Amino acid sequence: MKIAGKTPWLTLHVSSPLQSETPLTLLRETRVTDKANLYIRNNQDLAGSMVLDPAGGDWRVTLVGPRQTLPLGLDDLGRYPQRETEMVLQCSGNSRRRFAGTSPVSGAGWGDGAVANVVFGGVLLRDVLGAAPGLLEGTRYLTARGMGTAHEDDLPAFERSVPLDDVLNTALLATTLNGEPLPALHGGPLRLVLPGYYGVNNVKWLCRLGFDAEPTQNHYQTEKYRLPKRPLEPGTPFEATPANSVPSWRMRLKTLLWRPLVGETLRAGPVDFGGVAWSDGRGRVARVEVSCDRGVNWREADLDTPESPYAWSEWSLTLTLAPGEPEIWVRALDDAGRAQPLDPNSGWNPAGYEWSSAERVRLSVR
User: Fold this and answer.
1) Rounded Cα–Cα distance for residues 196 and 278 (Å)
2) Which residues 6+ apart lie within 8 Å of 96 measured at CB?
3) Does the keyword Oxidoreductase apply (predicted)?
4) Residue 101's CB: how many other CB atoms inside 10 A?
């Protein structure tokens, strides 16, 4: 499916619903990912939404709490202070095929390009709630509903719940992307944006926000986008339920090596390495380390520190490589004491969510 304004070089995984990822050669071109190169992943069908143009028409979202209901139009949101957040947007299934290399997993075979670094703009939810205190009484969860029909099982709506106290100060009612009106394809005209959370929780085409005592019982909350509470051996059958699993909420610490790329033949001698690293914002990326001897020795890379804790950090390092086929490992550590696991099987689950082990890339050096 061709979409006007989108690069033709996105890698197509599924045509319906459309699922396409960004090649690393495009992803590394700019710090902020252009909308033309932004990956595509939707869980709903909404007529007229498969365009990069802004969505037209009158759009309203209703905030619903136990003691108060607050309907808002886009004009209403325009009266509040406008904020911007630079952040990583990432599908829960990003890098799924790395899990599949260990044992088969279900879902689209995402490589490493179901991720982007973007700037969302709009209104902070907390600014709206200042005029509606009755929405919060006795509530623990924020439940977002997206307009349109959910793809699976012909469900009438798509909903996700997140812990309210965790997102209250950062949740954004987004109307812009990279300083322009939010494209319909990426959730416009209104999207709930939760910095530090996986993309599925950043609900597109937002039409309802519930302030609830319990999470939604929607299929996409109780059965999909969940991970086992206990580690599984690769290949172990597993059917997720609220009792045996947890939702895919906050992003895990992760690195991405995009220079050099897998398949490149390199000349022996100095080789420039580079990529990005990010976290959920609770702890900033503190170090990125690179090993060319399978983790025996590590070299610390140069690392930038973006203003936003939710944006990715670019890293770079020059290593001298001898002829051969070295396996390069890359890991990130943050200032909250977290580090990427070295075990490539860490976190394996049959749905292939949240791959976050240290990078392992084999290169050819001549």
Assistant:
1) 9
2) 105, 107, 108, 109, 110, 352, 353, 355
3) yes
4) 11
- Based on the fold, state whether residues 261 and 231 are members of the same structural domain: no
Same domain, 157 and 265: no
- 66: Cα separation from own chain's centroid: 31
Does 294 lie in the same domain as 229?
no
DSSP 8-class letter at 166: H
Q: Distance between CA 303 and CA 271 in Å, rounded?
A: 17
Closest residue by Cα to residue 21 from 72, 93, 105: 93
The DSSP call for residue 24 is: H
d(CA 252, CA 92): 10
Picking from 187, 182, 183, the residue whose alpha carbon sits closest to that of residue 200 is 187
- The range of the structural domain enclosing residue 325 comes to 254-365
The answer to whether residue 329 is domain-embedded is yes
Calculate the alpha carbon distances from 263 to 102, 113, 160, 260, 323 in Å. Answer: 20, 16, 39, 9, 15
Domain end (from 247, 266, 285): 247
- Per-residue three-class SS string for 57-124: CCCEEEEECCCCEEEEEHHHHCCCCCEEEEEEEECCCCCHHHHHCCCCCCCCCCCCCCEEEEEEEEEE
Yes or no: say if 303 and 334 are a contact pair by the CB < 8 Å rule.
no
Query: Strand 69-73 vs strand 60-64: parallel, antiparallel, or unpaired?
Result: antiparallel
User: Global pTM?
Assistant: 0.97
Chain segment 44-97, per-residue pLDDT in tens: 888 889 999 988 779 999 999 999 999 999 999 999 999 999 999 999 999 999
